[in-house]
Amino acid sequence: MSSKDDWPREKRWKNVYTRSAKLARAQKLGFEYPRVTETQLVVDATGVGSAEKRNVLFVCSKNQWRSPTAEAVWRKHPLLSVRSAGTSSSARRKVSVEDIRWADVIFVMEEKHRSRLLAEFTTTVENKPVHVLDIPDEYKYMDPELVEQLRQSVGALLGLA
After folding, report:
1. Would you say the pTM of this structure is higher than 0.70?
2. Contact between 119 and 108 (Cβ < 8 Å)
3. Cβ(128)–Cβ(121) under 8 Å?
4. Strand 130-132 with 80-86, pairing
């Protein structure tokens, strides 16, 4: 065997040794190696691949100010498909069983909206994550304070902030 044939094998051995040493060092320091990009962390956390979007439903009472604002704020996010609806019979767009089935995650503005969903769609909503944002009905459509609250709270809950 010539030394030329041994060289690639030796080089691979050094790479393996270097990688395992780096893995051990990273574990001691408490971080991932190889480093994972923020986008990959989002994809891993949400279980959403690059071609797959997560379906998010925003619910308020009349689908007039809060949930349409949330829909507008998150509509252009590349990892999300969004809809909004209301729980009231006088809502501009009333939440339906199809909306609940479609949603991977549901955000409601107040606890009463969560209670109404559970009462009306018990079996459909029981296995869905429903997050209460605690945003009172005191904002108009696209109110800057409402927009900021929605960006922070929804972003944090979805791991997108």
Report:
1. no
2. no
3. no
4. unpaired
**Any idea what the Cα angle at residue 73 is, between residues 149 and 133, rounded to 5°?**
35
Beta bridge partners of 132: 108
Which DSSP state fits 63? S
- Each residue's pLDDT, cut to its tens digit, for the chain (161 residues) gives 555 555 555 555 555 545 566 667 667 776 665 555 555 555 555 554 444 789 999 999 999 999 999 999 999 999 999 999 999 999 999 999 999 999 999 999 999 999 999 999 999 998 899 999 999 999 999 999 999 999 999 999 998 86
Q: Where are the alpha helices (DSSP H) in 47-81?
A: 66-74
Of 99, 136, 130, 133, give the one whose Cα is nearest residue 115: 130
Reply yes or no: is the peptide bond before residue 34 cis, omega within 30 of 0: yes
Sheet strands (E) in 19-150: 54-60, 80-86, 105-108, 130-132
φ and ψ at residue 9, rounded to 5 degrees = -65, -45
> Cα–Cα distance between 66 and 140 in angstroms, integer?
7
Contact present, 117 and 93 (Cβ < 8 Å): no
Q: How many beta carbons lie within 10 A of that of residue 153, not counting itself?
A: 18
Which tokens in the block code for residue 115? 């209670």
